[in-house]
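call fold(seq) -> tokens
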Amino acid sequence: MTSKKATVLVAGSWGTALAAVLADNNYDVTLWTRNEQQANEINHEHRNSKFLTDAVLPDLIRATTDMAEAVTGAELVLFAAPSSAMRAVARQAAPYIDEATLCIHATKGFESESLKRMTTVLAEELACDPNRLVVLSGPSHAEEVVRRQPTTVVVASASQEAAERAQDAFITPHFRVYTNTDVVGVEVAGAIKNIIALGAGLSDGLGFGDNAKAALLTRGLAEISRLGMAMGANPLTFSGLAGVGDLVVTCTSRHSRNWRAGSMLAEGLALDVVLDRMGMVVEGVRTTKAAHALSAQFGVVMPITEQLYKVLFENQSPRTAVEDLMGRGRTHEMEELSEDWGLHH
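ret:
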């Protein structure tokens, strides 16, 4: 039996899938959940049926509802809580985390009240150097990862040593991991692509076809890049796994919660009905509100985000939103691209 201990907070679909990757690398993995029934199912049936219906989990994964038991002695703690719960989960875990613990998060969103990135939230709650925190992101549906289908992601940290420790922990024959130093870019890309995926679901739900979706992805990448660079990101990040890679997979797959939510909105369902039917967190909804505020804060034009904000929070019809996007003023593509990528002189 290995002496390596890893902890995953919390036991949703993504946390569970990444726990399985760690178990494949011979970690004893403790999944923390608030739900006693879920913990018992994981421990006795090796399943997490609410989030990953058909998956059988490795024997090295066990679950607990006791935070002290989960975190104490772990050499690696992975935070996979929804963005809205990240601060509370980190605060609860903080007393049991020491300086040697490698802290990673795999959450794609902003804190909606403060507009802070998840590494900032963790640094505040764990009272640690933000340079030793790592973010894991990229094109990666939990349903495929847990079945060991080929997947490639990126781990980003200001500390190359921390990034390489995370890379070593997660890399397997089925799960390839690159390192990156652009934490801001990786976090912004992972968060904002969920907005574009909502838009892709809307577009598909309205029956607009592949031409419309190709335009949406292309201009969506421009919005992601524009905000990211205003916040200090490296533009190259948006051409990588966390950028265009994650954008493509989230906007084109029925595994995507955000795509499904957008498609349901296109059917005319109210937002609260959609969220209730989904039964899981749809990060793109909160992220739209945060990105709308960030675009104003940084003076960045984000027309797709603006239209989705109106659909989600101002009762604009999805069809009107698309018409407004198509009816924007004429522009020169090279001039706009030059501004998007910081090449304007």
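The beta strands are 5-9, 28-32, 61-64, 76-79, 102-105, 134-137, 151-156, 175-180.
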